[in-house]
Design goal:
Elements: E1 9-15, E2 18-20, E3 40-42, E4 45-49, E5 56-60, E6 66-68, H1 70-74, E7 79-86, E8 102-111, H2 112-119, E9 127-132, E10 136-138, E11 141-143, E12 146-151, H3 152-155, E13 161-166, E14 169-170, E15 180-182, E16 195-201, H4 208-211, E17 215-220, E18 223-228, E19 235-240, E20 245-247, E21 250-259, E22 264-270, E23 278-279, E24 281-282, E25 291-299, E26 302-312, E27 328-334
Parallel strand pairs: 5-16, 20-27
Antiparallel strand pairs: 1-4, 2-3, 5-6, 7-8, 8-13, 9-12, 9-16, 10-11, 13-14, 13-15, 17-18, 19-21, 21-25, 22-23, 22-26, 24-25, 26-27
């Protein structure tokens, strides 16, 4: 098998799993998340990439396979997409505990549909596979490449990019540079870093990152089904006031962010730990950015358990407990 696109691998910057968590929600007040405040999840270590040898191969069920250098990629039409970027959480344990690894950034890159149209998709293509240059060990398995897939319908959506910049700066190694896949509205695991190959295929790949990990079991129509971790479910965080903070009693302005694969249509806030809910004002979504919500609440003297929950345009709502996207709760003292 000719895999010249993998020759850009030049060793490791570091090996093994790496996690830089998000800061606490009260530090995520800016609309755009800085590189310093954006979480990092790296499964098998960060590869050194020889940019002079870097090639993006586009093959599979296409009429005209492509091999593009970084310079070639940057000559093509590009766009900017602002999107929330969210980590699903560890696939090695049940998704029953809250995960708040999220940020909001602007990506710059070539729309994937432009590349697929240049290559000419065959009619049998149903999934678009992506491969990264990273390799190593994860979950007790030796793995020769990070490999993911997305359905063709999503791949052809104009927001999906082969990105080479974030917040106006070239992608660093820890961000997946020199180029990565970005799939707005989907969990970050689908946005393959250190991208080297795009392949149009009829079926899903047999990668442990698609067959063993990053799947969830859900109830549908009276039965349970296993589905890929693709589109992000509704989630929200309170950014002000901060957890364990003290505020002046009386009217308090409560702010936060909400996001989901589909636009968030409603955010509710509770100041009595879920006994009652107040609807907040929510800014509309323009691309895939997180959405600001705010509401004025009355807090008499004492301790208050405050929660928020988001609902998307399809009526999907954050669960109260027992899930990675359960409602965000904070404790506030009013004096």
């Amino acid at each position: 098998m000719n895999e010249n696109e993998r020759k850009a691998f030049a060793g490791y910057v570091f090996e093994g799993f790496h996690l830089k968590p998000s800061p606490p929600p009260h530090e995520l007040t800016e609309f755009l998340t800085s590189d310093a405040n954006l979480f990092e999840t790296i499964h098998m270590g960060a590869p050194k990439v020889d940019e002079s040898a870097w090639i993006l191969a586009i093959d599979g069920l296409v009429r005209k396979p492509l091999r593009l250098s970084l310079a070639d990629l940057k000559t093509l039409p590009y766009k900017e997409v602002t999107s929330f970027h969210e980590c699903y959480g560890s696939p090695l344990k049940p998704a029953t505990s809250p995960v708040h690894r999220v940020g909001n950034v602007t990506w710059t890159g070539v729309p994937l549909d432009v590349l697929l149209n240049l290559a000419g998709l065959e009619k049998d293509a149903q999934f678009i596979w992506s491969e990264g240059l990273d390799r190593g060990s994860y979950g007790g398995q030796a793995i020769d490449r990070y490999q993911k897939d997305i359905p063709l319908e999503k791949a052809l959506s104009t927001e999906v990019l082969v990105a080479y910049a974030m917040n106006g700066m070239p992608l660093s190694i820890n961000r997946g540079g020199p180029a990565r896949l970005v799939v707005p509205g989907y969990f970050g695991t689908n946005s393959t870093k250190w991208l080297c190959k795009i392949s149009a295929q009829r079926d899903r790949p047999q990668s442990p990152f698609t067959t063993v990990w990053y799947n969830e079991t859900v109830g549908e129509s009276g039965s349970t089904v296993t589905r890929p971790v693709w589109e992000a479910t509704p989630h929200s965080i309170i950014t002000s006031p901060g957890d364990q903070s003290t505020v002046q009693s009386g009217p308090v302005n409560l702010n936060g962010w909400a996001w989901a694969g589909q636009p968030v249509s409603k955010v509710e806030v509770s100041v009595d730990d879920g006994a009652s809910w107040i609807e907040a004002d929510v800014k509309p979504r323009h691309q895939f950015e997180w959405q600001r919500f705010q509401v004025l609440v009355n807090l008499p003297n004492g301790s208050h358990r405050i929660a928020c929950r988001a609902t998307d345009i399809n009526g999907l709502t954050q669960p109260l407990s027992g899930s990675r996207n359960e409602v965000n709760r904070i404790q506030v003292i009013a004096k």
